[in-house]
Fold this sequence. Notes:
Shape: globular
Radius of gyration: 21 Å
Helix content: 40-55%
Order of helices and strands: HHHEEEHHEHEHHEHEHHEHEH
CATH architecture: Alpha-Beta Barrel
Largest sheet: 8 strands, mixed, barrel
Distance between the termini: 40 Å
Structural class: alpha/beta
Amino acid sequence: MYGRARRLLVERTPEQFLEDLEKGVGPLAERVRVAPEDMRQTKWDAMSRLQTLPLARREVEALWLADELVSGEFFVEFQPIFDLHSGGIVGQEGLLRGRGKEAGPRLAADMFPAAEALNVDRTFERFSWSCVLESARSLPAETLLFLNVNPRLIGRSEHALVALGEETERRGIPFSRLVLDLVEIETLPSAPELAQALTVPRDLGAVIALDDVTSGYGALQFCHALQPEWIKVDSEVTRGIARDPRRRAILKFLADLSKEFSFTLVAEGVESAEDLDVCAAEGVGAAQGYFLARPAAVPPSASENFRAWLAARPKDQRTA
């Protein structure tokens, strides 16, 4: 399905790509085999032994990604974000997945570090956009698309996201449907340069979401510079929040901040009715997570659990 995008990423024939990679990390792959004399025992069988060797694990995962690029399958799943008042879907987050010959489905969080190890992280970012945007063509025309963007890969000029513009134009998806979901924003040292890079997408109608937020300080730092329309609270805060007063205090601060800066607060990783109760009580406007709907290739509707939760809410807390 994504053959053209795969060629864009590899930029060489598969044979050349693997030959170059093998020269750099091939001997390492042999050293970490469970049984070097048995070729049926591949490098993937050794992954569990690499917990104490993070650098070696990184290179082995890079080998896995190389295999995926040549013979694997990339696909996209969507996970909806629901409005907690109406229960309606406010947007779909596009999630890249990978599946190879020797391993089960892999999350983007597994793949991007491997792409970085191979020094193809920028091209892989574009490849990810290409896959998600292609799949998003099947979504209803008015649906917002939350597109993950790694802010560390964005340059310092207003032309930094030209590649994204090319991919959206090719598929006829207007920027007005895009929510640029900036991942791991709290690890960035500075916001002004990022704000400059987002100038053109904003002028074309795209809006901004800060993803993986775990503290009030991180959100406050970037609210001034980026003025996001959405802030997504990481599952590290929301999961188990019903039993953790400290996490609830963080959420309450972010909810108060949302009123000051006029953004919508989204709770990520919600897996129980109890945690969703707390999120709603503290002023969270939207949520996503397994309790509401699991990711799927065909955009899913609300789960039975979430529909029951909505039906049980007091009438004054619901809207038509």
